[in-house]
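Lecture 7 notes: from sequence to structure.

We start with a single chain of 344 residues. Read the sequence below before looking at the structure.
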Amino acid sequence: MPSINPQAIREGDRLALSKALTAVENGLPESQEIQAALFPFTGQAHLLGITGSPGSGKSTLVNQLAKFFRCQRTYGKTPKIAIVAVDPTSPFSGGALLGDRIRMQDLSGDKGIFIRSMASRGALGGLAHTTAAFATVLDGAGFDMIIIETVGAGQAEVEIASLAHTTIVVETPGMGDDIQAIKAGILEIGDILVVNKADQPGAENAARALQVMLEMGRGGGWERYPAGKHMRSGPHELKNPNPDPSLPTWQPPIQLVTATDGTGVEELASYVVDHKTFLKETGLWQIKESHRLEKDLEVLIQDLLLREWLDRLEDGQYEVVLKEVVTRKRTPIDAAQSLIRKIN
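Now the structure, written as tokens:
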């Protein structure tokens, strides 16, 4: 048994949960036992991803959404909500400000909300390397909704679509809306599009530009495949993730919101609930779960193979070959093939 009792986590022990998440983030051996013990209880939480560019007001929006859902019986009861806020890591010190947590201080008195910040630690795509494992632990701990706020790095921040059931992309007026609207990238993954800071000039123009983007994208099947591209790529391509073509399709709504005062949050929350219902009724919920677990498995296999490969190399072997690459005596491809041959 791990020193951190998984049953205590299931019973709501927040200290045990915090220790478990720390073990996961640091890659401690006991984290594997904790995840194994909690895994049978997973698959119930609604994973809600919030992404968008820096300064778009993601943290404030998360704060308002969490407060709203806690006041509603959205899941037949007052939902327990976990928030994972991923903050960028300093490339020099390796530390992180964890500023998203500062913006959510008014949630700290609610025992039904658990907030955890984590540093990206250099991972790309807007998430940290262990964000998926965090979601597993929190799901197993019995949370009804897990809100994951990404770093806020821009258009490359698309990994959240592979993890979350529902992805909200947050835009703001005055950020080159017409150009943003024709860029696929981050906008294409959105199940719900939000124009935050709707009280500022240009909000309506931003919403119209996003609507144009949706109209242009319908030829590519966005309305049939929520968060489409991430579900149609990879070694096991999903040719038709919607099991019944006669069922209604999902067309990403656009919601104007002013997160600072909560305007539009109730309407946004209703779209979140509608999207969950859509996923359940069409069978896409289970398909997205399968895709997420498949991707998690692939990442774990890559990590384990890399670790095993490094362990099997002789001392100094890697450094010798690396020096040959640095001095241009060998190409990186040739060096990689040489190192692989050495352990085979």
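The first strand starts at residue 46 and ends at 52. Keep this in mind for problem set 3.
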